[in-house]
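RNA polymerase sigma factor SigJ, Brevibacillus borstelensis AK1. Tokens?
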Amino acid sequence: MEVEELYKSLGPSLISLAYRMMGSMMDAEDIVQETFLSIEKVPADTVRNAKAYLFRSVSNRCIDRLRAQSKHRETYAGPWLPEPIVSGGDGQTDPLEGYIRKETISMAYLLLIHQLSWTERVVFLLREVLQYEYEEIAEIVDKSSTNCRQIFRRAKRSLGKIPQVNVGIERNTIHLIEQFAQALLSGDMKILLETLTADTILYMDGGGKVKAPLRPLFGHDRIARFFIAILPEFPPDFSFTLRELNAQPGLVFYAGEQLFATISFDIQNDRIVNMYAVLNPDKLKSIMRFVSNSDMAPPID
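Tokens:
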């Protein structure tokens, strides 16, 4: 099979795996591009199974890059969040979202699987997300199918019950997020509290480059007071747009023409139970390709 045909048939799956492994679309695209460039230099008669070769190469490159980044991750300033992606059916950022469970790109899901070891993560994603048979996984990770079964079971047991979150943007969700945004912009403490729960958690990833709490904030009262306190620091030309981020309802924030933050939300029973705010500018570079301020909602007075 020609490299171009391989990319058309397997590229989306490889990018999907790499993004979930890395939590970064930029890394995922780089790794997959490097893999296809490398296969062009390999004699065709030495590649018995092109599919297994590509997935093994992408998996190994992900692990190598994760290993190289491990010290940086250990000293990361504040909560680490995956790089946000725009979803919603255009197929550009998550090519597989049409036929795999969309919640597997949610922030909650990605944070959970990033607790696994690198090998466990590969096996778990290949089996749970991409629905590969153990025999296929064994060839990709160079282990026996029995060993892969054991690794998968261990990973599944380690993760426990994966929380179910609403994905997509429904009408009642839009109303709730608009209510939150209006309360945020107007500084209405009462309405802000009504959109949250007593157990809501706010994660903010500034990466040490943008001012943000170094620990998650717990509870609607503390979170609401935090937002009210930082409201005067918002840019005067602040505006936002409602988008689907990581298969969840989200807001993209702008200062004039410049995108400066995203927040995605876990919604349960018409209340916000988790918020994932990404302010680290390095993590917003990829998403800038897919959002523009042309569809911004006007500021709410």
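The longest helix spans residues 50-74.
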